[in-house]
Amino acid sequence: MPKVHFKSPLTDVTVEVPPGTTLLDAAEKCGAQVGHSCGGVCACSTCHIWVRKGLESLSEQTDQEMDRLDMGFDVRPYSRLSCQSEAGNEDLLVEITEESLTAYMDENPAVRRRLESEGKWPLKK
Fold first, then answer.
1. Is the distance from CB of 53 to CB of 72 less than 8 angstroms?
2. pTM of this prediction?
């Protein structure tokens, strides 16, 4: 089974998942802070991630995903929506974008308040 390593300025976590698992489901399984305002139905771009390793092993991008990704912030050639990207057989290195991390904090105010009290949120630039 492939390992998915999620990296952000706040956390680094790794999870092993069966092929065919969406990266959003993998993130939820290990507590990676990936936002998903629409609930993972490809209706927004808040689960936008950068796949730094293993991009070619993911499921093929659909037209719907490409259209939604066009709404994203700081889209790069290795950008994907985690709700639409299914793991293949290779290990993956996934960087959580600031867009997704901000959406996660908006969706989880208790986590945001805790990190604010610790001086870890908002991110220092």
1. no
2. 0.96
* Pairing between β-strand 3-7 and β-strand 79-81 as defined by DSSP bridges: unpaired
The Cα angle at residue 114 between residues 110 and 117, in degrees rounded to 5? 140
- pLDDT digit string (tens) for 13-60? 999 999 999 999 999 999 999 999 999 999 999 999 999 999 999 999
**What pLDDT score was predicted for residue 68?**
97
Matching residue, tokens 């969406």? 22
Q: In what order do the strands lie in the sheet with 12-16?
A: 12-16, 3-7, 92-96, 48-53, 79-81
Tokens coding 70:
């066009």
27/43 Cα distance (integer angstroms): 18
Helices (H) and strands (E) in the chain, counts: 4, 5
What Cα–Cα distance (Å) separates residue 62 from each residue in 10, 49, 71, 110? 30, 16, 15, 35
- C-alpha 110, offset from chain centre: 20
Query: What are the residues whose beta carbons fall under 8 Å from the beta carbon of 44, sequence distance 6 or more?
Result: 36, 37, 38, 68, 71
